[in-house]
Amino acid sequence: MELVCPAGNLQALKLAIENGADAIYTGFRDDTNARHFAGLNFSDAEYEQAIRLVRTRQRKLFLAINTFAQAGQWPRWQRAVDRAAELGVDALIVADLAVLDYAANRYPQLPLHLSVQASATTQEALRFYQRSFAIRRAVLPRVLSLQQLAAVSKEAPCEIEVFGFGSLCIMAEGRCQLSSYLTGESPNTCGACSPARFVRWEEKNRMLESRLNGVLIDRFAEQENAGYPTLCKGRFIVDGKRTHALEEPVSLNTLELLPELIHNGIRAIKIEGRQRSPSYVAQVTKVWRAAIDAATHAPENFSSRPDWQQALAQLSEGKQTTFGAYQRAWQ
After folding, report:
1. Beta bridge partner(s), residue 210
2. Contacts of 315 (CB under 8 A, 6+ apart)
3. Does one domain contain both 149 and 205?
4. Which residue range forms the structural domain that includes residue 238?
5. Annotated binding site for [4Fe-4S] cluster, which residues?
6. What is the pLDDT of residues 184-224, one digit of tens each?
7. Which residues are part of a known binding site?
8. Residues 27, 9 contacting (CB under 8 angstroms)
């Protein structure tokens, strides 16, 4: 099983390699990539360093061109594919049908991975993408139960990659309509939901308030952990009770499910967090490297070590973790 780790900059990429990543996924500094934050991502010169590093250490470099091209802006997505091919990356991570078509026809030797943002959840959908664009791998969205995942993986026409750790999203992956509604900017091309320039913090009556474009998202008491203000994870009054009406601030953690994921033929585990710090990348990669090695060597004897779980809990939203949709009984 391959461990695929995030890198928002060169330092994170170096630490991912040092701590055991098999592959590192990255993006260009523009809106062709869904983590288009200021200060994140790689310049051309940094990509050339990154390529040398991964080749020296015999790892892989993936590049995400995973946004949907905008009307009238198509040449920018074409140039991104051309540049990725020139750099010699090991795979492109793509969601847009037109980008897939361009890459598959222009560079048939360049491996294509179907992005999670394509939201393919059936064998039929995977067969379409494999037949049309010869995808080598598909990243499945975080909406399937383990039983559904096993059914899709069983006869999939390509490798399957799933998320193992990181923040969760309740909307279609990376295309939050709630954030677009409040800020007027699409997470598809502006980096992520809740762009930082719309976020405000204010102390009032000994409480810390978080707002997104002026809308109150949450209030925190002095001893509470104050989460980043995303609309889906705010607390609101529902039936007279203040609660997380849509989703709690919590991170996916499938460490304990590793034997089942291996049994179901999952080819790769992806760690979420290109916008997170190099330290986060190093710590998470180290834990998952050790866990995957242990589970692969002897899955029947695998157990999740307390120190692994403690380390991951410290890096999780609200210091809480969940199996997410993998174990939602109603599915």
Report:
1. 201, 218
2. 251, 280, 283, 284
3. no
4. 184-244
5. 169, 176, 193, 232
6. 887 767 767 788 889 999 999 889 999 999 999 999 998 88
7. 169, 176, 193, 232
8. no
